[in-house]
């Protein structure tokens, strides 16, 4: 073979490899909740109103077992239930103490630490939940960021099957890190 043919084949192979790598990249979109917040999410997620009626954002991809939702609670709403001047620490404690009841499934906190996301003070919980599918028992694992905004609290919750957690953890971190109050 002459040098021109080798160079041509090398160029074609390089282009094919690069285009295949680009196919593996996940595209990201931005969700905006009516003048409250924005958050980025992977384009393979779609709106899903079956997860909960209380979320202002609820997206999933059941084939990938990847779920994402955002709950927001205004401080005025909390004061109607007797929680005046609630701190972030108190709000997190209430959520942790009631997480089994909230999910209706046995839940365990694996990790808890303070975070700051785009100027908002918060805490992040790494959570494992037991799921029963018929006679089988399996586990989900995810992250819940609880953030204090100007007028309320936000919960950014992302989860998957326990065995897929490490695979999706970078996506979970990007979703949480992209959250911005408007």
Short characterization:
The chain is 31% helix and 43% strand. It is α+β, with helices and mostly antiparallel strands and 182 residues long. The protein is globular.
Describe this structure in words.
The protein has 182 residues and is α+β, with helices and mostly antiparallel strands. It has one domain: Mog1/PsbP, alpha/beta/alpha sandwich (Protein Transport Mog1p, Chain A, 3-Layer(aba) Sandwich). The protein contains 5 helices and 10 strands; from the N terminus they run αβββββαααββββαβ. The protein has helices at 3-24, 75-80, 88-97, 99-103, 165-178; strands at residues 28-33, 37-42, 46-47, 57-61, 66-74, 107-117, 120-133, 136-148, 152-161, 180-181. The strands form 2 sheets. It has a 7-stranded antiparallel sheet with strand order 3-4-5-9-8-7-6, sandwiched between helices. Strands 1-2-10 form a 3-stranded antiparallel sheet. β6 (107-117) and β7 (120-133) form a beta hairpin. The chain is globular. Residues 18-23 have low confidence and may be disordered.
Summarize the main sheet.
7 strands, antiparallel
- CATH class assignment: Alpha Beta
The number of domains is 1
Rg over CA atoms, rounded to whole Å, is 21 Å
How many β-strand stretches? 10
Uncertain residue segments: 18-23
Features:
182 residues; Protein Transport Mog1p, Chain A; seven-stranded antiparallel sheet; 43% strand; globular
Break the fold down into its secondary structure elements and pairings:
Layout: H1 3-24, E1 28-33, E2 37-42, E3 46-47, E4 57-61, E5 66-74, H2 75-80, H3 88-97, H4 99-103, E6 107-117, E7 120-133, E8 136-148, E9 152-161, H5 165-178, E10 180-181
Antiparallel strand pairs: 1-2, 2-10, 3-4, 4-5, 5-9, 6-7, 7-8, 8-9
């Amino acid at each position: 073979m002459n040098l021109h043919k080798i160079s041509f084949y090398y160029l074609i192979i390089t282009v094919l490899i690069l285009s295949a790598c680009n196919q593996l990249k996940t595209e990201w979109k931005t969700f905006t909740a009516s003048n409250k917040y924005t958050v980025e999410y992977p384009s393979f997620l779609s709106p899903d109103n079956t997860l909960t009626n209380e979320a202002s954002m609820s997206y999933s991809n059941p084939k990938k077992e990847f779920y994402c939702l955002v709950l927001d609670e205004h401080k005025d709403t909390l004061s109607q239930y007797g929680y005046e001047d609630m701190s972030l620490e108190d709000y997190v404690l209430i959520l942790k103490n009631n997480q089994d009841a909230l999910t209706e499934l046995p839940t365990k906190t694996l990790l808890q630490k303070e975070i700051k996301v785009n100027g908002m003070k918060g805490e992040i919980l790494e959570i494992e939940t037991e799921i029963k599918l018929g006679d089988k028992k399996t586990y989900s694992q995810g992250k819940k960021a609880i953030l204090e905004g100007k007028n309320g609290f936000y919960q950014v919750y992302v989860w998957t099957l326990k065995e897929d957690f490490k695979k999706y953890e970078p996506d979970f971190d990007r979703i949480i890190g992209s959250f911005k109050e408007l």
